[in-house]
Amino acid sequence: MYFSLKALCFFAFPIIFLGQAPSSENDDLKAMRVSQEARNAEAKGTRLQVPGAILAQVEANPENCTFSDPGESKKLDAYRVAVTPKGRFVIVVWGRSSCYCGATGNCDFWIFRKANGKYIRILETHSVRDYGFVSNQTNGYRDLVVWSHGSAYQSSVRLFHFDGEQYDLSCGWEEEYEITEGTNAVANDKPAIVDNSCQQKDSGRK
C-alpha cells in the first residue's frame, strides 16, 4: 500500500505542476486581454469640443510648431469618458498637429477632471499614438492604457492607475507583430507580448 501511494504521488505531481501556467505567461495573457479591451471604440469615450478653460492650459506656443498653418496651435481632440460606476467623468485632450505630435504620430496627451467648477489636470504625458480606458479600477477610477508607436510592427504600451489624485504610470509592455518572411506584411493581428513589467498580483485591482 505504501508503494502504491508513493507511486501515485510521484506520477500525479508532474501532472499538477504541468497544469499550472508560468506566472509570466499569465501576465502576458492578462496584458493581451487589457490591450484588446482598451482598443474598443467605447473605451475612448464621446468626442466633444475642447472646453475653453482647458484650451487655455494646453494651447501650444506657435513658435514651437513645425508648421504655421492657421489654428495649428489649437488642433486638439477632446473626449468625455465616464471613469467611475457613478458616472463621474474626465476630459481627455489629445494633440493632433505639428505643435503636439512627432514625425511618428505620437502626440501630447492630457486628462482633466472637474472639481469646484474648475478643470484640474490629473495626467500629462507624451508620445501617445492611441489610448483606451478599461473596466479594471484603481481607487475608483478606470485604468488607462496608452500606446506609443515604435514602428509598423512594434508598439510600447503603458498602463496608468489612479492614485486618488492623479493618474500615475504603473507598468507596461511591448507589443510585437510577426512579419511574413520576404514581405512587409503582418502575419497576424495578434501581437506577441514582450518585456512585460506588469505583475499578476494586479489582476484583482479595483
Task: Write structural notes for this entry.
The protein is an alpha+beta fold and 206 residues long. It has one domain. 19% of the residues lie in helices and 38% in strands. It has three helices and ten strands. The strands form two sheets. It has a five-stranded antiparallel beta sheet with strand order 1-2-3-4-5, with no helix packed on it. Strand 8 and strand 9 form a beta hairpin. It starts with a helix and ends in a 12-residue tail after the last strand. The relative contact order is 0.13.
Write the layout of secondary structure elements.
Layout: H1 2-18, H2 23-38, E1 46-48, H3 52-58, E2 76-82, E3 89-95, E4 107-115, E5 118-128, E6 130-138, E7 141-151, E8 154-162, E9 167-176, E10 192-194
Antiparallel strand pairs: 1-2, 2-3, 3-4, 4-5, 6-7, 7-8, 8-9, 9-10
Q: Would you tell me the structural class of the helices and strands?
A: alpha+beta
Radius of gyration: 22 Å
User: Which stretches of 5+ consecutive residues score pLDDT under 50?
Assistant: 1-21
Q: How many domains in all?
A: 1
Beta strand %: 35-45%
**Measured distance between first and last alpha carbons:** 49 Å
Estimate the helix proportion, in percent.
Answer: 10-25%
SS elements, strand count: 10
| Total of helices | 3
Sheet having the most strands: 5 strands, antiparallel
Q: What strand order characterises the main sheet?
A: 1-2-3-4-5
Mean pLDDT: 86
